[in-house]
Amino acid sequence: MYKTTDILNRVYAILNITDDKEFCGIYEIKPNTLSTWRTRNTIPYELLLKISKEQNISLDSIFFGKMRINDDNLQLRYYTDVAAAAGYGAINSKLEYTEIVISKKFACEALGLPPLTRLDIIKVIGDSMEPFIHNGDVIAVDVSKNKLELVKNGDIVVINLDGEIYCKKLLKQPFVNEIVLSSMNSFYKDIVVNIDQINCAEIIGVVCKAISIKTFENAIIKYE
């Protein structure tokens, strides 16, 4: 497991500071709070995420030092400011992400993720895909399946349609040149996409796992 002292040392090097006093001053942290973090070997994920975004470095650089991406590792691009709507569509202006590299073994055992090379992690808003995906969950998206011919009938996809990002079940209608974006919650009506819209739409990828955001972030923090 990570050591808070090691993480702080890496953060101090990134910020070009030398001691706890400077760090506490920058982020308005009480010295006794920082002391408690060291004693309990814990540090708020939100703070590390903030530092990662401010300094434009990956979280794995903060937690472990930069890891080399190879056949044993999984690269996660965590879009903290992007949401896919399980409902009526979400408009996103920010496409910033934090890069996290973890071992495929850990990804499988702790998060139930498939042994792929790269996945995008995106937050879902809305309840139209319940009970499979709940409001506020994050979804792991296989971005290698980003073309209609690579998507199986009935796959749950993330799709950009006219600037709005949806998370829906995709149903192919080959004889009428259209697709249907369907919800699992019967309260929501299907979205019919005609051939012209299909040609302009962007399939971001196929959803392979839904995870509660708390489970995801706790697992990343505890990653060894």
Automatic annotation (TrEMBL):
Peptidase S24/S26A/S26B/S26C domain segment(s): 114-208
Domain Bacteriophage CI repressor N-terminal: start-end pairs: 6-66
GO biological process: negative regulation of DNA-templated transcription
Keyword field: DNA-binding, Transcription, Transcription regulation
Any GO molecular function: DNA binding
Pfam families: Peptidase_S24 (PF00717), Phage_CI_repr (PF07022)
Segments passing through the bilayer: none
Domain of life per record: Bacteria
InterPro entries with a match to the protein in the record: Lambda_DNA-bd_dom_sf, LexA-like, LexA/Signal_pep-like_sf, Peptidase_S24_S26A/B/C, Phage_CI_N
Record protein name field: Signal peptidase
